[in-house]
Amino acid sequence: MEFVKAKYYVESELPLEKAAQVIAAEQSTGTWVDVSTKPSDLDARLAARVVGVDEEKGTCDIDFPLEIFEISNIPQFLATVAGNLFGLEPVKNVKLLDIELPKSFAREFKGPRFGIEGIRKLVGTERDGRPHIGTIIKPKVGLNPKQTADVAYDAAMGGCDLIKDDETLTDQKFCPMEERLSGIMEKLDSVKQETGRTVLYAHNITSGLDIVERAERAVEGGANMLMIDVLTSGFSAIQAVRAEQALKVPIHVHRTMHGALTRNPRHGIAMTVISKLTRLAGGDQLHTGTVSGKMERSVEELVAMNDFLKGGFHGLKNVFPVASGGIHPLCVEPEVKTLGNDLVIQAGGGIHGHPDGTVAGARAMRQALDAVMSKIPLKEYAKDHKELARAIGKWGGDVSWSEIYEHGN
Ligand code: CAP
Ligand code: MG
Questions:
Q1: DSSP string covering 88-157, please?
Q2: Which positions are annotated as active-site residues?
Q3: Which of 17, 20, 24, 231 has an alpha carbon 20 to 30 Å from 147's alpha carbon atom?
């Protein structure tokens, strides 16, 4: 018999073993009371079972028989391993820390269409294997299509490999997605003619109702990458877009709202779980966090999660981890040193907030990356790279994120 294995952190007034059994029952064949309607042989087939507890760490391991899952149905999977248990009265706090999926479960999913190697081929970095530099158009919302395209052009000419919509920009009246798409793709075609470089544009199709139609219209309109906010759209949204054979473009996955699940170490769902499900669903790139940016993190979990995304997983293609959030040129070194070269390093404010504007900001990010790849100290490299020098002048001080938010920067 094969199992999906789940690890939980649990706080309860009940003894840990008992609390684990309560969770296992509730999430499989039981409820709060024995029922006369349960066939005597059912538990042997479908009951989840507690296979270990660690009193010191407060964790338990529960095995779910594979048969309890509907293959390739992520919503049902989450209802089973991450459902009612979070609200059970006797379980005061619980966090789903990790899941282990057998090959027979994972191989029912398509996984990423491109993966890291496929995206590198699109951008032309398959040989040098350097990290990609991306930017998010800022301000987050409010620009019209022409203004958005102009910012995209500047960032691309400055050296960005990837331009993305921000997570809250979809098809609002001030920036209709089809006009935005055509404007940006026209600019990126000019970049290609002027520099020979292919720059990707992650076009945000996040929506609940018509996401496949949006994806089809976007690809017909020339999109070379799609973007989906996985937690607000749902994992099935990624699966549905990925399942469309004609949509031969990579999917950039943003994780906005994840903090509601991942941030509390005592309650919720770990980002590790979200990353595994995103890979199954078909995300080619996924925001997983930074070691030096504005969002909170566990570096240990981040490194392990990125290693999972880049490594083998039952024959599914790998996923490009994205480091984003408060990133500027001085963050490039710690990100690459900790997370490696298979990384998309994204800066929004860190490019468009450069003292000399977007082109200079993108150049400064590329100069910081070139310095790291050539193993030259940043300040040394900045001596004959003025855009980097100006970024160091602005962000070189040792200030905390709270000070930055309080006093501006
Ligand atoms: C970054 C960003 C991204 C964050 C999300 C923002 O902008 O566009 O959404 O990276 O965080 O809106 O904050 P800045 P994460 O570069 O200006 O900070 O990647 O951790 O999910
Ligand atoms: Mg954003």
A1: -TTEEEEEEEEEE--HHHHTTS---SSHHHHHHHHHT-TTT-PPEEEEE-SSSS---HHHHHHHHHHHHH
A2: 138, 254
A3: 231
What's the pLDDT at 295? 84
* Index of the ligand 1 atom closest to the CA of residue 289: 20
Span from the CA of 8 to the centroid of ligand 2 (angstroms): 30
CATH number of 115-397: 3.20.20.110
**pTM for this one?**
0.96
Q: Are residues 409 and 171 in contact, defined by beta-carbon separation less than 8 angstroms?
A: no
- Domains 3-106 and 115-397 are alike in CATH topology: no
| pLDDT at site 347 | 98
Report which protein residue has its CA nearest ligand 1's atom 11.
325
Distance 350 CA to ligand 1 centre (A): 11
- Average pLDDT of the segment spanning 199-222: 97
Q: Compute the residue count for the chain.
A: 409
CB 80, CB 68: distance < 8 Å = yes
CATH class of 3-106: alpha beta
Domain limits of the chain? 3-106, 115-397
Tell me which residues have their CB closer than 6 angstroms to ligand 1. 136, 138, 140, 166-167, 255, 287, 289, 294-295, 324-327, 347-350
Ligand nearest to the CA of 321: 1
Nearby residues of 87 by Cβ (< 8 Å), 6 or more positions away: none
User: CA angle at residue 48 from 45 to 54, to 5 degrees?
Assistant: 145
